[in-house]
Automatic annotation (TrEMBL):
<dbReference type="InterPro" id="IPR051675">
    <property type="entry name" value="Endo/Exo/Phosphatase_dom_1"/>
</dbReference>
<feature type="domain" description="Helix-hairpin-helix DNA-binding motif class 1">
    <location>
        <begin position="148"/>
        <end position="167"/>
    </location>
</feature>
<keyword id="KW-0238">DNA-binding</keyword>
<feature type="domain" description="Helix-hairpin-helix DNA-binding motif class 1">
    <location>
        <begin position="178"/>
        <end position="197"/>
    </location>
</feature>
<dbReference type="InterPro" id="IPR004509">
    <property type="entry name" value="Competence_ComEA_HhH"/>
</dbReference>
<keyword id="KW-1133">Transmembrane helix</keyword>
<dbReference type="InterPro" id="IPR010994">
    <property type="entry name" value="RuvA_2-like"/>
</dbReference>
<dbReference type="GO" id="GO:0006281">
    <property type="term" value="P:DNA repair"/>
</dbReference>
<keyword id="KW-0812">Transmembrane</keyword>
<dbReference type="Pfam" id="PF12836">
    <property type="entry name" value="HHH_3"/>
</dbReference>
<feature type="transmembrane region" description="Helical">
    <location>
        <begin position="12"/>
        <end position="32"/>
    </location>
</feature>
<dbReference type="GO" id="GO:0015627">
    <property type="term" value="C:type II protein secretion system complex"/>
</dbReference>
<dbReference type="Pfam" id="PF10531">
    <property type="entry name" value="SLBB"/>
</dbReference>
<protein>
    <submittedName>
        <fullName>DNA-binding protein, ComEA family</fullName>
    </submittedName>
</protein>
<dbReference type="InterPro" id="IPR003583">
    <property type="entry name" value="Hlx-hairpin-Hlx_DNA-bd_motif"/>
</dbReference>
<dbReference type="GO" id="GO:0003677">
    <property type="term" value="F:DNA binding"/>
</dbReference>
<keyword id="KW-0472">Membrane</keyword>
Length: 200
């Protein structure tokens, strides 16, 4: 009987130890299978770089030039800022045969609102090119002007002034500027050039 009890005690101890060992092994296996936590990386976001630019106003690339006088097509033309007087004359169709080229500076650079006046041969004028920002020219009254006053009008020389005075003396006062078309030597283009300087 004592032998049986002793055997039972030894067997129970072995069973308990075996179970304990199995539990320990399983616990270790479970622990080893769990992933090792790694420290979380913190991403640093740099602030956006703001580029400071200075807006430079764009320079004008074109100017407007008014050409009058003895050219084929007097008008206001849009020209490049580096254009010269000769370029404007070419845009206006070129000079008329009676144009006095000696009074023009063909190499002069144009400016915005510039006025170019091309005189005819024998015309007394000093205003060849100027700026339209100046005051408008004083108009000469066709019905009151004498020879000296008519000669101040760009485009009217001594011969043309004498013809105008003779026509007025013979036919009476002008009722409108367009009556000049009846004067010998004055056509529509000439009238267009003179209309800025004459009145009735």
């Amino acid at each position: 009987m004592n032998r049986i009890r002793t055997f039972y005690e030894l067997y129970r101890i072995r069973v308990i130890c075996g179970v304990a060992i199995v539990v320990i092994i399983v616990s270790i296996a479970v622990v080893l299978r769990q992933p090792i936590a790694t420290p979380r990386q913190v991403q640093t976001i740099a602030p956006p770089v703001v580029e400071h630019t200075t807006d430079t106003p764009a320079l004008p690339t074109h100017v407007f030039v008014d050409i009058k006088g003895a050219v084929k097509e007097p008008n206001v033309y849009e020209m490049a800022t580096d254009a010269r007087v000769k370029d404007v004359i070419q845009r206006a169709g070129g000079l008329l045969p009676e144009a006095d080229e000696t009074q023009i500076n063909l190499a002069q650079k144009v400016t915005d609102q510039m006025v170019i006046y091309v005189a005819v041969d024998g015309e007394q004028t000093t205003a060849i090119a100027g700026n339209a920002a100046n005051d408008s020219p004083t108009k000469v009254n066709l019905n009151e002007a004498e020879l000296e006053q008519l000669l101040t009008v760009p485009g009217i020389g001594p011969a043309k002034a004498a013809v105008i005075l003779a026509y007025r003396e013979e036919n009476g006062l002008f009722s409108r500027i367009e009556d000049l078309l009846a004067v010998s030597g004055i056509g529509e283009k000439t009238l267009e050039r003179l209309s800025d300087y004459l009145e009735v």
